[in-house]
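Convert to structure. Protein one:
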Amino acid sequence: MSLGKMPGRKSAGLALLVLATLLGIGHWIAQGVPVALPDVSGGKFACVSYAPFREGQSPFQEGIIIPEWQIDEDFAALASNTRCVRTYAVDQGLDKVPEIAARHGLEVLLGVWIGSQADKNRLQMEKAVALANAHPNTVRAIVVGNEVMLRGELPREKLAETIRWVRQRSQVPVTYADVWEFWLRHKPLLDEVDFATIHILPYWEDEPVGIDTAVAHIMDIYRYVETQMPGVTLLIGETGWPSAGRQREGAVPGLVNQAAFLRGFVTAVDAEGIDYNLIEAFDQPWKRANEGTVGGHWGLYDVGRAAKFPLTGPVAELPGWKLWLTGSLLFGLLPLGFAALRREAPGTPAGWAALTLAGAASGTLLVMQARYVVEMSRMPFEWAAGGGLWLLSLGAMLVLATALARAVEGRTAGRTERLVSPVRLLALGFVLAMCLGLVFDPRYRDFPSSFALLPAAGFALLALLRGLPQTIRDEEVGLALAILPCALFIAVREGPHNAQALLWCASSLLLALPVLALRLRAKQPPVILPQPSGAGTSGH
């Protein structure tokens, strides 16, 4: 059957496969487009937060001591991009920071970790004072406590005593660091510090701020805090933007957005002479345990210590986009081999076109899924779960591509058709599990839309070509019924600006609604058409 003579919806199905393939190719090309951004004035940042932990390391590991050579290696890289580092503690090998920083010409904002345990606090305080007094030309200030009021780990009076103890013994200035709102709630702490260190993170605000207005937001907050704490010297102690992770309303993580924020912020504060520290030097994989994917992607450098972007010139979201595109096209060839192995290879040009296009479009989603698994996985369990889901997606791709090719040709169901219903059941189960997580515990959860979109689009195209299936399992109907309110709730709560959430919800509904439509159709009473006169005595 020639393409021009195919039934209308089969032509539409092929057209949609062409469109999906072009969108996949266009996605990778768009990721590689360089974006012009302002350059960092002076070629260096004023200061960056430093935590030394690499892949497989965590501050929560009992007895961990970061070796001196590792910190030295990090500072050698940082010295080309910053003039200062801010630390958060003086144990686990960080007591070597002032000495190593001096060798690389770096200044230090020396952090003292203050929590709820008085004995550990005292050890931090004593060590920090000793280090600062021994390296007064390297240690700019001691930061006694980080977001203690935010976490509620000490009463304000006890924190004030702690800061006062350090300040009375230190030869360098002393400060305390917290989110700007908490400084305004605890102004009596101003009596204990030489200057106030405030955190302003547009992405994490209770009402997240998008990248277009993030820098202006920081400047507005800074000026507002100045009016509320007149005469107080301020340091913006933490600000930054994540390069990967879940979108929060209009705040979208991404490499270009991270570079745009940091460069725009530095340009703005340098023009007004505002001192600052960026979070953070290196990606910290251990933070994903508490903050999800986004927690591990705030660094100027990735976990392998490679700079994510230059401080001057244009920046592309995915500089290696050609490699990812090639991978997508190679994965797209897998359905051809799968159909041949199962002796269900197409018999017409239209069938071959459908099989090839379905593979190419799915290949893009599979590679996007692989990128996501790499970004979000930290522990063996996460790698196993992400890898298992990816293998299920690969199986769904092979089954659905073969089924679509046979549907375009108008051929009867083959051996692969027996796998269609189990694949749909697994897809519905996965989508519901993710939806429930996003309903009840959403703050740090991602929207892995590529995992939902592959089966959703495949089954929707199959329904377009063949119509809804004649039978459906009760389990599938139950899952679809549960997905419907969850997806709608997520869309409403996340709001119209969260494109990631809307795509996830749309994919979820695209998967669930055909199942519900079939069940509704099955419950419709049969339509009895009026018979013409004498029809009942025709004798047939």
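Protein two, convert as well:
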Amino acid sequence: MVLQRDQPIPVWGWADADERVTIEFSGKTFTTKAGSDTKWRLDLPAMSAGGPYTMTIRGKKNTLVINDILLGDVWLGSGQSNMEWRMQQLLPHTKNDIDSANYPMIRLFDVRDTISPSPLADVSSDGWRLCSPQTVVTFSAVAYFFGRDLYQRYQVPIGLITSDWGGTQIEAWMSPAALRPFPEFAVKLASVEENPGGSLEQLKQAFARKLADWQRTYTVADRGFTDKTSPWSAADLPTTNWRSMQLPGRWEESGTLPDFDGVVWVRRQITLSDQQAGKPLVLHLARIDDVDSTWFNGHKVGGTSPFDAQRVYTVPGSLSKAGTNTIAIRILDTGGGGGLFGDPKDLFATVGEDTLSLAGSWLYEVGIDTRQAPKAPNLLFSQNSLTSLYNSMIAPLIPYALKGVIWYQGEANTDRAYQYRQLFPGLIQDWRNRWGHEFPFLFVQLASFMNDKPQPADYAWAELREAQTMALAEPKTGMAVAIDIGDSTNIHPINKQDVGKRLALAARRVAYQETGVVSSGPMFKAMRVEGRQVRVGFNEVGTGLAVRDKYGYVRGFSLAGPDHVYHWAKGTLNGNEVLLSSELVPNPVAVRYNWGNSPDGNLYNREGLPAVPFRTDNWPGLTIDKQ
């Protein structure tokens, strides 16, 4: 393994309550005692880079020996699929990198995908492995290229821990405390916190028992059956308080009972003449979603379960009478639309040669609302559930000493980009608080993906990138821009080498505090309107601005006037500034650059790093109303 240099080294584990634990490391002996909860921890003194060392841990009954321990820098890589994407998934593009990955001073540790409703004590993993062509092939490409660059530069051991899961939202990686400031998560978070301490399997078993208990009682709890002397199938039932619905028609689609599953009774009276009375009668009840039981004048005459079957029931002549007759149908809807549905011409009764339409107004009353059934804690059963990945894939790593974190995530939150403005800093602060250390936090801005419209427009992906840029306001953060190395047809772009390289540049500046290193492309500083023209200045210009175009034209900028409508702008370099104009915008008030899914902006600094996408306006975009 690799332990973090120049920091106290937390070592922890479990033993019998009050058991004495001794650690021998680097010629020194340290002793502690397990608490009543069986946990123990020792913080060994900080050490400089070096090794290999052996650590011996002794308890009352057993001894553990860990060999080949190095002191160096440990980085945690986390996020969704672009962090998770393995070297082998990028073949043949990464073949030479895999074949040359003989770096025994780099060690790899990958956390298996696991979910949990409550914090776990340990992670699932194959453990530490030496970096080799055989081991790197299944390891994160971004993390490996990042770690390789750092090792080649600093020649100190590098430990890479990856804890990532494709398609995951940021809130799954945050602790409950980090999510409490967000009222929009309150209901879901309460559901999560109703079940503290239990394992996922224990929660599933508890829910299964609760649901089974409810299912044993709900069928007899149907209000249509509870009054044995006057069931809702009775011909003479008082229906003063019943409401009406139009049939045929599914009750959820009509809005009569929105989002309803359960049992509904419907009733209708028909009038038979003296000539029709006493004759067999045939009920044609169209289709019923899902199951029905049907009564005529209090006597059951049929029942069918397939939801798409035509209901046709024969009523004996002995049950029909002159005057008012009552049809009662008990409908069980187990999910979906619910109700008696179909074509009105399929809802009728026949008596001899006579046809009586049954379409129109029916009375109804709810017998059972299955929405009152115990709810499966579905929030706990998914990798995108609140806190589920923090609990299982981050919390167990704490307090393993880290140099810092690299993060590549955001694709799964693009429809809530404005919310990400608070969520992302919340995660950064949360993890630092949990580790008790303001470690460097470096992240990748989303690469280009999907096509753009011919004219400037609003894009959720652009808004998410903007939210990521805003996180640079947090101390000790750095961002690797990937807008120019994405693929409009592939959410997993092949070029992970440059992603790792740009993260390593950010690490050199933020984590290793190198002076003079250019780790970012140009960043917007200020704009000044000069008549019909706009002058834009930048920070992070390095040794100067550059345009990647043989003609020297600047692409990717747009201008808007007071009408808030953007138009493409003509741009030229003027030293370390860009001059913009558009014939369609005589009074410019705002500028955007590379504001799109896969924009084609070509502004860089001479160090080859792309300008950071930006906008100067704060006008509401696509995702602000989706919070």
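The mean pLDDT is 92. The two ends are 43 Å apart (CA to CA).
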